């Protein structure tokens, strides 16, 4: 697989990375299957693994940690996890629990999870806010890099990277996302200018792009991203994604335009639910 630089960190990762949200009972993946899938991914060169404490109440982290510990593979991978709490104290408690579930003394990357609004960003940057936790954890060696994620409004993440030199940003970069509040148009140029590593997500638009599976992956890989995470709940999905990534050739501008025209009808609230502020209603991080 093609490898790319990860922002200004000096690290390199394959274009395909592992979204661990789906290696859980909720997605009909058993613990035994999860362990097999994770180890197969590492065997095939995938080294970047994304998870969060909110994914199935910690089961995603737990299974990833177990898969790595059983064959002593923690040193082979980069683990990114998150805090959905907007306060210092709450975030530090989340990190403590994450480290236990992941069976590690540190994570390579810790991110502010899905900052949707300027108000949330302000909460994180305020006195006693989550950013204090990230800075303290880095000073203590519990984390190595500081990140932020966002699905909804690229202007929020643009403001974030103006306020602080985040090492990376995980943002929605499916072809469908290109058509509404486009991170590709609004966020990527400034992030690249600042040396921020960009991780693409929502590649399949919660399954809505499945009929164009290979094209959807090809589109996101063709963007100036460092890598793209894809959720995988079965060995068959992993093998399919590996095959597409290994044979990847960048889309031309004309091919991108033709694909966007083909899927333009998906640019609606029923499909792009994460673009709406209504998505924050209730416990978004549990439903995500």
Overall geometry: globular
* Helix proportion: 25-40%
User: Could you give the order of strands across the largest sheet?
Assistant: 3-4-5-6-7-8-9-10
Terminal-residue CA separation: 29 Å
Helix count from the secondary structure assignment: 12
Count the E strands: 10
Based on secondary structure, the structural category is: alpha/beta
- SSE run: EEEHEHEHEHHEHEHHEHEHHH
User: What is the alpha-carbon Rg in Å?
Assistant: 18 Å
Beta content: 15-25%
Main beta sheet: strand number and arrangement? 8 strands, parallel, barrel
Mean pLDDT: 94
Which residues sit in consecutive blocks of at least 5 with pLDDT less than 50?
A: 281-288
Structure description:
It is a single chain. The chain is α/β, with parallel strands linked by helices. The chain has twelve helices and ten strands. The chain has helices at about 30-45, 60-70, 90-100, 120-125, 130-140, 155-165, 185, 190-195, 215-220, 235-245, 255-260, 285; strands at about 5, 10-15, 15-20, 50, 80-85, 105-110, 145-150, 170, 195-200, 225-230. The protein has an eight-stranded parallel beta barrel, surrounded by four helices. Strands 1-2 form a two-stranded antiparallel ribbon. The longest helix is centred in the N-terminal third of the chain and has 15 residues, at about 90-100. The protein starts with a strand and ends with a helix.
Element layout with pairings:
Blueprint lengths: L2 E3 L6 E3 L1 E4 L11 H13 L4 E3 L8 H12 L7 E6 L4 H15 L4 E6 L5 H8 L4 H10 L3 E8 L3 H10 L4 E5 L10 H4 L1 H6 L3 E5 L11 H10 L4 E5 L3 H12 L6 H10 L21 H4 L1
Parallel strand pairs: 3-4, 3-10, 4-5, 5-6, 6-7, 7-8, 8-9, 9-10
Antiparallel strand pairs: 1-2
Helix pairs in contact: 1-2, 2-3, 3-5
Pfam families: Aldo_ket_red (PF00248)
Organism: Paenibacillus alba
InterPro entries: AKR2_Oxidoreductase (IPR053135), NAD(P)_OxRdtase_dom_sf (IPR036812), NADP_OxRdtase_dom (IPR023210)
